[in-house]
Specification:
This protein is an alpha+beta fold. The chain has two domains: 168 residues, Aminopeptidase (3-Layer(aba) Sandwich), CATH 3.40.630.30; 196 residues, 3-Layer(aba) Sandwich (Aminopeptidase). It is 35% helix and 28% strand. Strands 1, 2, 3, 4, 5, 8, 9, 10, 11, 12, 13, 14 and 15 form a 13-stranded mixed beta sheet that branches. Strand 13, helix 12 and strand 14 form a beta-alpha-beta unit.
Length: 376
């Protein structure tokens, strides 16, 4: 039977769009390592009235049908801030989910591509869910472990669907892990960190939660400076960063959120997040009736952190500040009771950070791939 792809227009269709992944991952052949997102969070993410990201973005969600049954979903996303900042006519592909069927995948990809091309875009890349600052990429290996917080997961057949429909690699994103049992903090690394801190006259402190709003604004300024030249970067607006920070505030451990200061100003940040996916994987996307209690009570048992945000202002690049932040984040995490960390994601050609982690002995164990497709 043929596949039809229709734009999502009604509230009922939005609900079906949000809930479709449960058919893929919790259907006849459940995929145990998938972590169901919180349904309320998914609603807020795609709601233009709640998420300020959509203030500068045009988007169309689609559902694929075969014999009136939903068999896939996708979003075409045009971020005007990205096009302006990067000076490239590129749209995003997002929220792709589909059954293992090349016809379904092709129909979805073609619908998103046609939408982007009609708006003057020359290329489309993804998945971005919904942007490079959120969950992105296709998992291409290491399917035997659940993802950590704010990292994606997909069936092993997804890379073949992309590549079978003519997509090519845009960029690979690496994940590194460090476990206390196999990677203790050595005296040599400690001495290097102390030398950097003393030589560069850098002081480290935890985030001041009593002045959270002011701290967030300072962090946003450092982040936008630190990441300006990175692949896929778009400067965060104040409203977007506040929206993100309010979510992080619910799960972040302020004892290990580190701010680096020198010459009286903030020059670097390290923001690890406890891996709440260890709890979410048991909640099936629902806070009620008992999920909220599982989430609150389970936080004390979390033993892995993900270093989600780390950056140093350009005038302090190549001075060892990133090494100091990695070392102190890991050391303080261990002192606080965590037993390991994931550093993700690291762009494949970010050799300074990759070399730093690999020289320490961190393991590159997982890769996500962002794909691209020309629209000419």
């Amino acid at each position: 039977m043929s596949v039809s792809v229709e734009p999502v227009q009604t509230a009922a269709e939005i609900k079906r769009f949000i809930m479709f992944p449960w058919k893929i991952y919790r259907g006849r052949n459940p995929i145990k390592n998938w972590v169901p997102p919180l349904i309320v969070g998914e609603k807020d993410t795609i709601d233009p009235k709640k998420n300020p990201f959509w203030a500068h973005v045009e988007c169309q969600h689609f559902l694929a049908y075969r014999d009136s049954r939903i068999v896939g979903r996708i979003s075409a996303i045009l971020d005007r801030n990205f096009v302006q900042f990067q000076r490239e006519k590129v749209a995003y592909l997002g929220f792709f989910e589909a059954i293992d069927d090349i016809e379904v995948a092709r129909a979805l990809f073609d619908a998103a591509a046609a939408w982007a091309k009609a708006r003057g875009m020359a290329r489309i890349m993804g998945p971005m869910n919904p942007s490079p600052d959120h969950i992105l990429g296709v998992l291409i290996d290491s399917f035997d472990n659940p993802p950590v917080v704010q990292m994606g997961y997909n069936p092993p057949y997804y890379p073949a669907l992309y590549e079978g429909c003519g997509w090519r690699k845009e960029k690979d994103l690496y994940c590194y892990r460090m476990l206390a049992a196999s990677l203790p903090v050595s005296d040599k690394i400690r001495r290097v960190a102390e030398i950097v801190q003393k030589k560069r006259k850098v002081s480290l402190r935890p985030i001041d939660m009593k002045n959270f709003k002011a701290e967030v604004e300072r962090i946003r300024e450092v982040y936008n400076q630190a990441w300006e030249r990175n692949w896929g970067f778009v400067p965060w607006t104040r409203e977007e960063f506040d929206f993100m920070a309010n979510d992080l505030r619910l799960v972040a451990d302020p004892r290990i959120v580190l701010l680096a200061e020198a010459e009286g100003r903030l020059i670097g940040v390290s923001i690890p997040i406890p891996d709440v996916n260890q709890i979410l994987i048991k909640m099936n996307g629902r806070l009620l009736p008992f999920g909220i209690f599982r989430l609150l009570l389970g936080r004390k048992k979390l033993h892995i952190i993900r270093l989600a945000i780390m950056g140093v202002t350009p005038d302090y690049h190549n001075q060892g500040i990133d090494a100091l932040l990695v070392y102190e984040t890991y050391r303080r995490g261990l002192d606080t009771g965590y037993r390991g960390a994931e550093f993700s994601w690291i762009i494949e050609d970010n050799y300074p950070v990759r070399n730093l982690l690999e020289n320490w002995g961190a393991e590159h164990y997982r890769t996500y791939r962002v794909y691209t497709r020309d629209l000419s």
